[in-house]
Structure formats: structure tokens, C-alpha cells
From TrEMBL:
Subcellular location: Cell membrane
Keywords, ordered alphabetically: Cell membrane, Membrane, Transmembrane, Transmembrane helix
Coiled coil: none
Main location: membrane
Pfam families with a match to the protein in the record: Polysacc_synt_3 (PF13440)
Family: Belongs to the polysaccharide synthase family.
Protein name (record): Polysaccharide transporter, PST family
Amino acid sequence: MVVMNILRTVVLARLLTPQDFGIVSMVSVIVGFAALFKDAGLSLATVQKETISPGEISTLFWLNIAISIFVGLSIVALAPFISLFYNKPELTYVTIALSLSVVIQGFGIQHAALLRRHMYFLTLGFIEIFSSIVGLSIAIFFALQGFNYWALVLSTISISIASVSLTYIFCPWIPNLPKRRTGARKMLRFGMHVSGYNILTYITQHVDQILIGKFIGPYGLGIYNRAHSVVQMPIFAIRKPIANVSVSAFSRIQNEPDKIKKYADKYVLIISFFSMPVMAFCFVYSESLILLLLGKNWDEVVPLFRILSLAGFIQLPLTITSLLLVTCGKSQEYLRIGILTSTFFLFFISLGIMWGTTGVAFAYVASTYILSLPMLFYMSKHVPYTTKDFFTSIARPVFASVLSGLIFFHLPAPCFELLFLNVLCSGLFFLFVFVLIFTSTPNGFSILKNDIFSIVRHFK
């Protein structure tokens, strides 16, 4: 999936313009927000519950479909207002088209949740990769035909169709007709709390793009969106496989405090080990990476990419807060922490927009770090994992990543003719220095051998 994301970024950046990406991003942010309601947190409820009956799953399946159709129709009704909000008439039809994707996805929510519950992660990975190949092929074809931003819209719809179709093939479960008193009410309540948090989190993560689209325009949004997307690529690639395993694993030990602490320590350590050096490398080699991935016409992305990589440095380790609250069944607390973080984040971004895209990027970074302590303290009151445990777990990766970054920031870049070779050699050398520094810390080698390598062997 990492390769597919990189390939999609590299190819489409050379076929489409910042304006094209900006127009689709304007709609995608709002449609994506509405699409959160189609899940209603019910997929996570299916994965999280210790035991679940066929009747409960069937009820959730029909609920998801009903909600998805309602959300899709609501998006269609809102299309003229979205166009009016941005003062872009072409957005009306883009919005209506993307609403189809929302409805289609609703039909596969519970089937995908069942695959996650039974830990068929290779199957889910195949579905995602194959769907992305279909979507990229559609995008390339229509971009070459001169469809501009419509290539991205049609790609999104095709990904949804391919994903749901494959999910049905690999999970041929047939739901029963909905019945009353199936016991799904409690799961629905859990899902509502989770959905509430997800909605607040989505607002937090996308209000920057909404404000940029409104006050700066599609070109500025296209530049910012590409910077944000490239930063998120390694974050997504690292988080997805680890998080998929972790949700199921933590749900099974939710009543065992000692095991929760032990597993949480490993989760934070491992995810920090893989994410922090990558973000440090992105900060140091931002110019080369953007030139390689997007091409010479996207040089305005470089400073934004460098700033946002600072937020990416701590983002993945902080996911332990939401992970533990959800898997331990603390859905109300999960919602409350979402209210806290989203309120302050909105405040920071609203200030940052006065200084353009650069101001928004700095506001994004500042809010990420300032809110981290309240999030950790709040989490520690409700689950058996403390703020001290968190900082102990990230200490070695932080030290090794920052020191490696400082060293390479002052070193000259390799001088190969091919930019790809320059980035590859720099990356391998950076990784070598990071591991060397990490293993030089007290117990660093034994941690690398017993904890880091163990998770690598697991995914093999």
C-alpha cells in the first residue's frame, strides 16, 4: 500500500495541477465529514465487543446501509450550498458525484469489520491494494483524456466499487433481515460515542483545509493538501498494520491491567521507532523528497512539508490515547477528549489562517504538541497507562531521531546524477546512524532485538 500511495502521488502530480487537487479537496473535506456518519462507530463496535451474535451483526449491517443512503442524499441536498460557500459553481456536480462513493461504501462496512475482527489483515491489505490499483488506473486514463479534476472524482468512486465488491467476495456472509431486541442497542450507544469522537477528530484534522479553501482558494489548498498528504503517507503506512493488530489485541485483554500496560509500552516504543526517524528524515531532506515525488512544479510544497513533518514526529505515538480508551470500552471518555482537542485546535487554526498556509501549518504543529500533555493526563486517569510510561517509551526513539537529524542537517547530500539514488543512499545512511545511536543507549540493543524485531517477525 505504501508503494501504491507513492506511485499515485508521483504519477498524478505530473498529470494534474494544484488547482485540480484543490477543487477536489474542497469537496472531499466536507463530503468526508458527512461520510463519517455512515459508519456511526458501528464497525469498531463489531471489532471491539468480546462476543457478538449473528443477529447483532445483521442489525448493524442494515443500520449502516440506511444511514449511508441518508447521508448520501443529504450530501446531494447540500451540494449547492457547498458551491456557494466556496463561490465555485463547478463544485455542485463534484459533490453530487462523490456522494455516490459514500453510499457504496456503506454496503461493505460490516463485512470489512468482520474481516478485521477475525484478524484477516492480509486479505484486507489485498483488497485495499487492488482497489487502489483500479482507482489509479481510472485516474491516469481520464487525466490523459483531459478530464482534469474529474479524473480524481471518478477514481474515488471506482475505489469504493472495487473495495466493496472484493470485501463481499472474501467475506461471503449474508445478513438476516433486521429484528428487534437483538442486543445491538448497547453497541449502538458505544458506536455513537466513538462516532462523536471521530467527527470531532475529523474536524480537527481538516478544518485547516476548509479554511484555506475558503479564504485562500483552490490553488493554495492544492499546495497545502499535497504537503499534508505526503507527510501522511509514511504515517499511514506505519500506523495501519500496527493499529489493525493492536485494536484486536487490546480488546482481548481489556480487563487485564498488567497486560494492557505491557502491550501499551511495546506499542508506543515500536510505533515511535518506525515513525520518528522517518519524520526526522523528511524534515532534513524535504526539498529532495518533494522534487522526487511531485516534480519541479511543486516547489511551494517544500516549506509546508518541512513544517508539517514536525507534527508528524509525535502524532503516531499519541494514538495510544485513543487506542486504549476505545479498546478498554471507555467510549464516553473517548468522546470527551475529542471535544477538548477539537476546541483548542479550531482556535489555533483560526489564528494561523491570518498568516496564510504557512501560518496554518505552524498552528497545526503548535496545537499538536500543546494538546499532547492534556490528552495523556486525561487518558492516564481512565486506563492503566501513565504519562510517565509514555515518555519512558519514546525516550530512546526521540533521542536517536533528533541526534540523527542534527547530524545529517549539517552533512552535504550525495552527488549522484539520479535524484532517486541521492534520496535512497541518504535514507539508508540515516537509518544506519539512527539504529547505531539507538543501540548505543542503555539496553538499546536488547530492546531492538526483543521488542522491535519481534513485531517485524510477527508481520512476516
